[in-house]
Amino acid sequence: MPGRVFVASVLSPLRHRWRADGGYRHVLALALPLILSTGSSSLQGFINRMFLIWSSPEALAASMPAGILSFAILSIFINTSAYVGTFVAQYHGAGQNTKVGPITWQAGVVALAGALLSLLLIPAAPAFFAWVGHDPAVQVEEVTFFRILCLSAFPTVMAAAFSGMISGLGRTRTVMWVSLATTAFNIALDYVLILGRLGVRPMGIAGAGWSAVVVSTVQAAIYVCIVCSRRYRDAYHTLDWRPDATMLRALVRFGLPSGIQFFVDIGGFTAFILLVGRIGKNELAATNLAFNVNSIAFMPIVGLGIAVSVLVGQAMGRGEPEKARYRVRSAAHLTLTYMVLIAALFVLLPKLFLSPFAAAADPEEFAAIGAIAVVLLRFVAVYTTFDGLNIVFSSAIKGAGDTRFVMVMIFCLSMGVLVVPSFAAIHWFGASIYLCWSVATAYVISLGLAFYLRYRSGVWTTMRVIER
What we know:
The protein is mainly alpha-helical.
């Protein structure tokens, strides 16, 4: 009898939170399509790098530094544009649906700026990667990949804006289907171009780059067809594409700090990866593998984080901060449960995640890389729970408009806890790969705690991004 009472006392609150407005079921209904969407991107990257190591170890080693550098630069523009989703959520929550289309199209100016900067960086690629000092064979692959990825800037940024708009309206299943379709197309195209199939000559890392350009263009085109359909244009004025200085200023005011935040965060990890490349080719390849496996845990929670921003934005648009709090707590419970499970798998079954990379790789070369990667996954297991807190609570406060704090905090911690200590450890003290990963682990833990404390302060509950 006492056992039944105990079980009932545990299950009763869980049942209530499952059914309540803003409870687990409500959060998952919005988040699951986004989790599948971001998870599909993670799967695509995982398979992409699997094809690359089948092509050559140099291609795998080059893919992460060049790819993450390109994404870090473009992330300023991607995440400034994606912040359209918070504006749309708050406009939708406040019943101002006629402003949804106009705010979305302001992202076109941001996309043009990103495309121009990317094109200007193409000639500088050889000098930059020579300065980084990786193995010469890796440098050649890095330059090739980076230059091609620069051509995908405009469609990538616009796709982020359209995705943000549709998510902000709560129609996350549409985003899911677009992501799943383009991911399947991307995987098929990678297989053909990287490895050379269907009569196409093997292109290696260049094939991965051209595949990304084609798929981002197709994805943006699909979104244009969706948002310009009658269903959207009648309800949300999505054909009102005229520049609006007031709306553009508002998007830049709140979205640019979000973009800079992502740039600094990704830029910090870019610097970390580039520095690790100085230790050795195997250490760089193992780091790429560990981060790639980590993305299996990380990217689905990114989808949940987008849902948290939308749920908070809609609640704040209606002037209901307590409902926003309840939704964030539900998302935090789900995140912690998932992350603890993933951490256990990384510790107990690391070879399960690494075996696809070994399938068609050179056994002798992969043995050395895999042995390092197994240890690195233990570091991932240590920090992954804090990474979940980082995503959920930073997304929550950004959904209200607290983007400047996120930007400043990530800058301070990225420089002070990740980049400078990593540089000092490698450049002056000849640190091992494991000491460098200890530094990265401390950085992620610091981020999780910082954003949790900011959320608990409640400052964000007084903020809005739209006119009151």
